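Hey all, quick one. A colleague (J.T.) asked me to put the zinc ion job into the tracker so the inputs and the structure tokens live in one place instead of scattered across chat threads. No bug as far as I know, just bookkeeping. Sequence used:
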Amino acid sequence: MSLLRYDVTTGDWLVLASARASRPDRTGERRRSEPAPHVPHDPDCPFCAGNEAKTPPTIDAEPDPADASRWSVRLIENKFPALMSDARTERRLTGPLFREMDGHGRHEVLIESPDHGRALAEQPAAQVVRVLEVLHRRATALGRDPRLEVVQIFKNSGSAAGSSIPHPHFQIIATPIVPRQLRIKFETAADHYQVTGSSVYVELCRAEVEAAVRVVASNEDFVAFTPFASRTPYEVWILPRQAAPTFDLADRATLPALAALLIDVLGRLRAVLDDPPFNLIVNSAPRRHADEPDFVWHIEILPRLAHAAGFELATGMAINPVEPELAAERLRERTRRDP
Ligand SMILES: [Zn+2]
């Protein structure tokens, strides 16, 4: 059982999940032999087809369009969950300043395809649409649970980005509290709306399109750009042209356009940075603010080219050695990695 503990010095909660220390790290083999050869099936990988019994049961799935008896996308509970749905949400004091609660929430894994070695950027568009459909459906279902405040979708790609299983996958962690970083981000957007009467994200999307220097690619429904205040080299955001506070409120009809732009942007990052480790996060408003226009859901892609060091840990202030204007220019020049 994990615990949530409150830090009285920062106003934030953290997860103590000691059971996760025992989970296997299967990226060691890949670290030794990078770049990894394309292996479509690994008999020892719990996410590969045929090994379903090694994982918790299926929560949601998309069938293989060519053979309905097989899955093409599969969503399961994490075998070593950081948070669990059967835990209670009451806070308790174990000392004068020591507030904690049981680790309530959800921790799930979406297996992007049965193919062990095919990155998201290399998937056919229809497969990426199926991935987004399952994420959208699951975010909608978790959003209905009143005990969950935040449904955080993310992807770690490469061991340097925190991935412990090389088979491409997304994760969802839903929390019973709003983590402080998200609280600040939402409050900043709410303040902006109160002052100006419009969403800072709607204005930002428009301003980046007008400035044009940081736009990497775009289509009828989405715009990808390197943000003016990029925290990491080659940070890329994807913003919808049609505003919605949370990802599950995005119009499903726009998911094919999102898939196309995601493949395009990830392909460019692979081409320019030679398959970098990265984190992809889907930012949404906390559930309690899901009917307010202040926030607009969006995707942030953060290549992990350098580790956060003392100054960043001390201050939360990033030092980024690559101008986002230069990163955008390089990303515009290249599309896919040369064979
Ligand atoms: Zn696998």
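Adding what we noticed when we looked at it: The pocket of zinc ion is lined by residues 42, 45, 47-48, 116, 167 (CB under 6 Å). The mean pLDDT is 93.
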